[in-house]
Amino acid sequence: MNKTALSVNVNLVAQVRNRRNLGFPSVTRAALLCLQAGAQGITVHPRPDERHIRPHDVQELAELLKAWPDREFNIEGNPFQNLMGFVRAQRPQQCTFVPDSEDQPTSDHGWDLTRDGERLRPLIAEAHALGARVSLFMDAEPQAMAAAKAVGADRVELYTEPYAAAWGTPGQAAQLQRFTRTAQAAIDAGLEINAGHDLNRDNLAAFLKQVPGVREVSIGHALMADALELGYAATVKEYLRCIDQAFA
Ligand SMILES: CC(=O)[C@@H](O)[C@H](O)COP(=O)(O)O
Ligand SMILES: NCC(=O)COP(=O)(O)O
After folding, report:
1. I need a surface site. Which of 81, 175, 193, 207 has the fewest CB within 10 A?
2. What is the pLDDT of residues 70-80, one digit of tens each?
3. Which one-letter DSSP state was computed for residue 104?
4. For residue 168, what are the CA distances in angstroms to 118, 163, 173?
5. What is the CATH number of domain 5-247?
6. How far is the CA of 126 from the centre of ligand 1 (A)?
7. Are the C-beta atoms of residues 41 and 223 closer than 8 Å to each other?
8. Nearest residue CA, atom 9 of ligand 1?
């Protein structure tokens, strides 16, 4: 059984760096240390307002990852806004289409494919022509998985905030069942599965133990908060241990 890959989202490092015009903490150095510690990928979400990841970060990370051919670069964003420019310029292994508006504080919902599916289809096809795998950021709704496959997606990224919010409450089991049903529907539709948003070292193993077929988790906020205490390398190794625990 394939073990789930860890893709580290470095948005937060850029957000800290942007507080002052001093150029540190370095986004590329954070990514390098995470790769050296065993992370299988790096994720960025270059939002139009450049609140954290800026175009030069994307270019510098793409350059860094050329030296790591067995690792992946995942660029997230809204393809109706600025994402496709980054996909055309940097040719990442994966792009994740996220339906965020420009002023959203963070990602908080998946695509409504009944509304946007046909508009997404040519952009998915273009990303494929550029050599990128396409993942659609989706809520955990089993009935939406067939539509994701129908518009050409390779993967769905299940938006895991509702699971994380229920962690440690009586609603945890129901959320896990919801994500398990959605993952099975995705598998039945011929999709692969990613997952992300508010995952952390407490809730990660239980999710991966129950939800089938998760190929990749992209984790940023909690992992970087842990790295402020433990350092990048020890933190990545701890998250990899959580993943191992799920498959033990
Ligand atoms: C798509 C997703 O759930 C996250 O990667 C999100 O992109 C995080 O964005 P911020 O770091 O701007 O909150
Ligand atoms: N796609 C999810 C991601 O990249 C990071 O989300 P978070 O861990 O910062 O919530």
Report:
1. 81
2. 999 999 999 99
3. -
4. 39, 10, 9
5. 3.20.20.70
6. 23
7. no
8. 106
Strand, coil or helix: 195? strand
Backbone angles phi, psi at 136, to 5 degrees: -100, 130
Give the contacts of 172 (CB within 8 A, at least 6 positions apart).
163, 166
| Residues forming the active site | 45, 76, 197
Q: Is 106 annotated as a binding residue?
A: yes
Q: 70: which residues sit within 8 A by CB, 6+ positions away?
A: none
Can you read off the two tokens belonging to residue 215?
């190929």
Q: Does 20 count as an annotated binding residue?
A: yes
Are the C-beta atoms of 231 and 193 separated by less than 8 Å?
no
Q: What does pTM read for this prediction?
A: 0.98
Per-domain boundaries in the chain? 5-247
Q: Ligand 2, residues 61, 155, 221, 242: which to mutate, most atoms within 8 A of Cβ? A: 221
CA distance 128 to 212: 26
Q: Cα–Cα distance between 131 and 137 in angstroms, integer?
A: 19
